[in-house]
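Whiteboard transcription, Tuesday session. T.W. wrote the structure tokens on the left side:
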């Protein structure tokens, strides 16, 4: 019973901590000189916008805040009673004495405290350093850029960092380097320490060359982007509810955009193309699909695995590549070779020819040798030619009872060599034959793209992709042949990958597409069916870089280029692949090489067996004929020297 209460207590503690993580509470206290509800100055308007931006911070610990306006000193005790239990406090005042009083009273008990000074206030001594943003240095222009960046960055670092993983921290803190809010503000204005500490008036900062992080924060903070996307596992995955409606987006590409969203505090919506196409050029020169949406300014970024091709590069800009992809051919699984003549498979034709020649001429040589060595006065009966054939064949097939009647050392040497050869041939034949029967040779239908037009398979490719343009616009070679087949065969361009998969399973088609996309389908099909119904051709082709398309001269391109390169260099690309790519140890879909299974033996493969058999260290070699049992080299010498 006691252990059960301990478990319940632990659960309650975890739930309590989770509730604390879900909401970061802070107070915004401002005096009557900064009326954010009815702003009468640029400073007041900015304060209202800055707080709204802070409320849109996206991270696991959502922010909530309460605002308190101080119109006279008598309100301070009541306000302080309400805010002492919160997580942080932001004080924005014109009068220094109010901020000093609040800092002296509450700061020792507050974990996080930020002052926004719109007038020059001397620092107070309280034993701890206070985060201050000296906004009196800023004019209206750079307050909107540098000021908004500084306060939002302070909130992001203090709200998000304790609860996000190291990957998000790397980008929120600008490559992992932490800095104070005041330093962030100073770096933004471009002033050195001496000028920053000595200036007492608003700095005129109208240079267009703002630091990159300031430009991008000002560009994206609180903005709403339009993304166009199609489901394309593992890069883009749509999560659906029980009714089939899309409720969330994930995948390799969305990991990239979500990492940027955590850093630059923007929102986005996903626009699906009506024709479910990536985009190709039309006869009138326009583009359809997602590229068409970008050209019409209906989308800001094409989020998906877009192949960077020459024709596309002429109408849109591309980010730096985030992945290299090859195209491959999905085909029915390889079939087993015909077993009708499997008895001939263990040896190559050269070995069978050598055996046939030996079986034919060796008995003749032995018979002729006996006839030549026999003297007329001897009464020994010379074995006939038929008996020599019986001996040679009997040794080869392992039949016992064969007598080798001979005289002279030469015939006996030939007989001994034939016995050794028979052992080698017989053992090798039986072993390889068993391998062929247990592990049959698998032969893929095709091994490369050039073999596809001459096979019995038809082919399909996805509509509106770079592969369609590759084949239909080709003017020579196998690409042109494939393109002509697409034009001549109705239904060769498909809108759904599932359609292509089903045709391949039926055994009548090959499906040409990006390999990573097909790998995902193969893994899903194996999980559903429990069998390998799909495989890849051995050779791949059309290696391209995948990137995000944007409108020409888009201001988002420098941001995407730099951040994508940082993510890839930090190893996030490989980390996300481990999450979304099927395991490489899967049972299906591996590229089948042209030769798979036991190989046929040649003469060179049999040399080792002969040497092994004749080794003097061999303890007990048994002759597979009716020749006498032999013990290594000594037995062979005995056989050669014995009388006939």
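and on the right, the sequence the group agreed on:
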């Amino acid at each position: 019973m006691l252990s059960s209460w301990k478990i319940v207590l632990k659960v309650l503690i975890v739930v309590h901590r989770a509730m604390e993580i879900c909401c970061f509470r802070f107070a915004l206290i401002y005096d009557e000189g900064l009326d954010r509800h009815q702003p009468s100055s640029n400073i007041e308007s900015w304060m209202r916008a800055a707080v709204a931006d802070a409320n849109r911070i996206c991270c696991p610990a959502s922010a909530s805040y309460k605002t308190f306006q101080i119109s006279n000193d008598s309100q301070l005790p009541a306000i302080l009673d309400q805010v002492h239990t919160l997580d942080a406090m932001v004080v924005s005042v014109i009068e220094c004495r109010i901020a000093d009083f609040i800092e002296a009273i509450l700061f020792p008990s507050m974990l996080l405290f930020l002052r926004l000074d719109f007038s020059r206030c001397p620092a107070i001594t309280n034993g701890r350093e206070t985060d201050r943003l000296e906004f009196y240095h800023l004019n209206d222009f750079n307050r909107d850029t540098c000021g908004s960046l500084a306060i939002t960055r302070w909130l992001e670092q203090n709200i998000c960092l304790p609860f996000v993983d190291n990957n998000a921290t790397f980008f929120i803190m600008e490559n992992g380097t932490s800095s104070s809010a005041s330093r962030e503000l100073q770096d933004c204005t471009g002033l050195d320490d001496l000028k920053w500490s000595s200036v007492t008036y608003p700095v005129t900062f109208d240079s267009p060359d703002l630091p990159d992080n300031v430009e991008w924060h000002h560009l994206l903070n609180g903005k709403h982007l339009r993304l166009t996307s199609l489901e394309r596992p593992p890069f883009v995955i749509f999560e659906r509810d029980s009714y089939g409606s899309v409720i969330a987006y994930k995948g390799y590409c969305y990991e990239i955009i979500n990492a940027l969203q955590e850093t630059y505090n923007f929102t986005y919506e996903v626009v699906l193309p009506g024709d479910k196409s990536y985009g190709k050029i039309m006869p009138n020169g326009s583009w359809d699909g997602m590229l068409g949406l970008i050209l019409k300014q209906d989308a800001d970024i094409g989020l998906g695995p877009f192949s960077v091709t020459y024709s596309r590069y002429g109408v849109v800009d591309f980010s730096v590549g985030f992945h290299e992809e090859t195209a491959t051919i999905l085909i029915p699984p390889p079939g087993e070779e015909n077993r009708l003549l499997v008895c001939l498979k263990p040896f190559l034709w050269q070995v069978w020819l050598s055996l046939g020649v030996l079986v034919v001429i060796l008995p003749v040589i032995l018979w002729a040798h006996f006839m030549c060595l026999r003297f007329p006065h001897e009464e020994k009966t010379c074995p006939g030619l038929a008996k020599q054939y019986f001996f040679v064949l009997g040794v080869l097939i392992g039949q016992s009872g064969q007598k080798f009647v001979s005289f002279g050392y030469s015939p006996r040497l030939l007989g001994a060599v034939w016995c050794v050869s028979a052992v080698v041939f017989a053992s090798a034949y039986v072993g390889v034959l068993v391998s062929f029967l247990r592990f049959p040779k698998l032969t893929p239908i095709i091994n490369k793209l050039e073999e596809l037009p001459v096979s019995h398979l038809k082919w399909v490719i996805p509509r509106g992709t770079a592969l369609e343009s590759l084949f239909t616009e080709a003017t020579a070679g196998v690409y042109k042949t494939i393109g002509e087949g697409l034009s001549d065969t109705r239904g060769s361009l498909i809108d759904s990958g599932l359609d292509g998969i089903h045709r391949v399973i039926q055994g009548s088609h090959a499906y040409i597409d990006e390999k990573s996309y097909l790998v995902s389908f193969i893994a899903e099909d194996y999980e559903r069916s429990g069998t390998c119904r799909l495989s890849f051709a051995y050779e791949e082709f059309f290696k391209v870089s995948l990137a995000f398309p944007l409108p020409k001269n888009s201001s988002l391109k420098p941001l995407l280029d730099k951040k994508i390169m940082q993510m890839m260099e930090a190893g996030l690309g490989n980390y996300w692949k481990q999450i979304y790519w099927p395991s490489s140890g899967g049972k299906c879909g591996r590229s089948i090489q042209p030769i798979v299974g036991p190989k046929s033996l040649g003469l060179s493969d049999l040399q080792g067996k002969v040497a092994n058999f004749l080794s003097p260290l061999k303890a007990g070699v048994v002759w597979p004929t009716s020749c006498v049992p032999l013990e290594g080299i000594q037995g062979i010498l005995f056989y050669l020297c014995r009388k006939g």
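Someone added at the bottom: Residues 28 and 67 are 5 Å apart (CA to CA).
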